[in-house]
Amino acid sequence: MALGEENIKLIFGLKLRQLRTAKKWSQSELSEKSGLSVSYLNEIEKGKKYPKAEKIATLAAVLDVPYDRMVSIKLDKQLAPVGEILNTRLLEELPLELFGIDKGKLIEIIANAPLKVSAFISTIAQIANTYNLTQENMYFAMLRSYQEMHDNYFEEIEKEASRFRKEYNLSSDGVISSDVLKEILRAKFGYTVEENDLKEYPELTHIRSVFIEEAKKILINAKMAENQKAFLYAKEIGYQFLEMSGERAVMTPWPRATSFDHVLNNSRASYFAGALLISPEGLGKQLEAFFAQPKWNDKALLNILESYNSSPEMFMIRLLNIIPKHFGLSGMFFMRFDHAKKEQATSLKKQLHLSRTRNPKNITLLEKHCREWLDASVFNELGDGPKAHCHRFVTKKGDQKFMVMALSRPMKRNANAALSVLVGFEETSAFGKKVVFANDASITETILSVDESEKELEEEFRNIKSAMRSLMESQKQGAVAELTEQEG
């Protein structure tokens, strides 16, 4: 078992605690017998310190165990689950500190309940194998949870973007061009910037940007739209201005995520870019006027979009950042759908729900009916530029209503493709007071109903839950058998 220094400290601390508790001694009693302070022993048991050889020898003598057993990283049956977890590097990959979890405490919990945790870990592993839960999927799932925990609003990045605008005298209520941002990258951050149309490399036309760290150089696909270039330059400034450490994306779109740092840093740089290009002050004022209108006004929403150097997707994500904070509206959600015209296929590519208490069934129904609405009323009517639409979804019982605003457009470089980005609101009493056009009777409506195919899916889900219970029971029986063996 190849273990780093930190994990060796954790294992030594757990072994010391195991030997001490086997003798039913408190840390104070071990302190009296060994001459080591209680605070020092506590630091050792938490895996924060590793004692010198003479102190290990003292502890070994007091505990009546061989010195070699004290320093060996070989684990007995009780601590075997700890070894399994450390071998998988799972705890190195998970950003435990980001979620307020102490790694040493987690290891201690695992060590104190090895049989239960072994069953749990084995079950999770089997589920992951069955459903192809990749490490990369886990990173993005953790990122969504992190965003939801913060209501997708990060004040410290908003403040840094505001500070940057003031420092470089950039507009807070209008268009910031890609040329201005490109020049800042060159002059202030020492970048070499090259825009290339990639005509000589047709296989690379899908690449938007490449960052070469050694040369501090960024290559940009010159065929991109102006708002795409502005976003990429603003994002690159974000990496530098926020002084990020750790892994980062070097290519857009990236081939794969290699760590949670990779995913989180990309998210933070992207957030900075959005906050720089669309200020909360300017957008907040425009939305106040927009929400005050008595009727849904698609042109008014498009006019706000056009007042910024922004793609529809970045604009809608900024709505998700700003509206809950600025207007006090909770329960918002975001979805992006991609559409292939010839195949008549629409797929969900991204989603984020800021309500962590929403019924998962309603989320599934919203996704399904949003897709059907887009196919029936939006994707077949697209022209050359973006269009705005509004729709309402109501649960069958009528106890919940959701209003959705969508910006949809054809893909410029792919005649067969289109996309639609949606932001949705749960229609609470607060929503009705803030958004006057919620009372517009001309907004079309769909009932969130369950069809026969969904009933089959529900039945399948019940079967999966039943299988899970059986799996857990078999794990439990295995744990009992192991306990009996230990006691025997």
Account of the 3D structure:
The protein has 488 residues and is an alpha+beta fold. It is built from 20 helices and 10 strands. The chain has helices at 5-22, 27-34, 38-45, 53-63, 67-71, 80-88, 90-93, 103-112, 114-130, 135-149, 155-167, 178-189, 226-241, 260-277, 280-291, 298-306, 312-327, 360-377, 429-434, 452-487; strands at 192-196, 209-212, 217-221, 251-252, 333-340, 345-353, 387-395, 401-410, 417-426, 445-448. Strands 6-5-9-8-7-10 form a 6-stranded mixed β-sheet, sandwiched between helices. Helix 9 packs antiparallel against helix 20 (452-487), helix 11 packs across helix 14 (260-277) and helix 13 crosses helix 14 (260-277). Mean pLDDT is 82; it is low at 478-488.
Q: Write down the Rg.
A: 28 Å
The tally of strands reads 10
Which consecutive residue ranges, at least 5 long each, have pLDDT under 50?
478-488
How many DSSP H or I helices?
A: 20
Total domains: 3
Measure the end-to-end span.
29 Å
Shape: globular
- Give the integer mean of the pLDDT values: 82
The SS-based structural class is alpha+beta
The H-and-E topology, N to C, reads as HHHHHHHHHHHHEEEHEHHHHEEHEEEHEH
